[in-house]
């Protein structure tokens, strides 16, 4: 057994000095902890960026086949085109042109509204599109609810408030009736949302349901039948 002198080095010492030793010291990875600290600093409800700009409404409409302008021009392009056209016209010609443009716009808007009322998916907003939302509309339209009379009742409540300013004694009773009416509206609204979600789950088991869908049904129910858009496709009492 040899004796190691102070100036002599073993093979392990040489490997450690050269950085080629078989024994490695691994430091703990601090990245997960750093990520947790970064996420903790983010505000509640923070949504990370999509990595792409939000598409413009005009681009989405053209993609769906909705064309507000015959030339599929953007609003900025239309304004520029009108500005250049005005330079080439007299005052009378410009007035006649603007009148014609207004009439054409009204005709296009009437056509678009007719398509929306008919439930054309291309012209509907995001909240109204889809088979599930169409089913919810039919479900609400096939039933009668106390909420159907919210808007007419709101006018009655306004009259009640005016009466209360002249008849203080009657005001207390009328206020109590108003509170009972509003409480009934909220309770039935909860029932409508719950029943609408159950009906959707029964017909579309894989569909997403929840508060948003219930509010959609509730808001539809609070509108007078003739004011709803898209227009009702089923009669009251029909089986959906």
Question: What is the CA-atom radius of gyration, in angstroms?
Answer: 34 Å
Shape: extended
Q: Which residue ranges are poorly predicted, with pLDDT under 50 across at least 5 consecutive positions?
A: 16-31
Strand count, sense and closure of the main sheet? none
Strand content: under 5%
Number of extended strands = 0
Structural class: mainly alpha
User: How many DSSP helices?
Assistant: 9
Helix content: 55-70%
Query: What is the overall pLDDT average?
Result: 79
Order of helices and strands: HHHHHHHHH
Question: Terminal Cα separation, in Å?
Answer: 96 Å
Question: What would your notes on this structure say?
Answer:
- This protein has 240 residues and is mainly alpha-helical.
- The protein is 60% helix and 0% strand.
- It contains nine helices and no strands.
- α7 (150-166) packs antiparallel against α8 (168-203) and α8 (168-203) crosses α9.
- The protein is extended and about 70 Å long.
- 8% of the residues are buried.
- The model is unreliable at 16-31 (pLDDT under 50).
What's the quick description here?
The protein is mainly alpha-helical. Helix content is 60%, strand content 0%.
List keywords for this structure.
240 residues, mainly alpha, 0% strand, extended
Q: Which SSEs are present, and which pair or pack?
A:
Elements lengths: L10 H8 L12 H11 L15 H8 L10 H13 L3 H28 L12 H11 L8 H17 L1 H36 L7 H11 L19
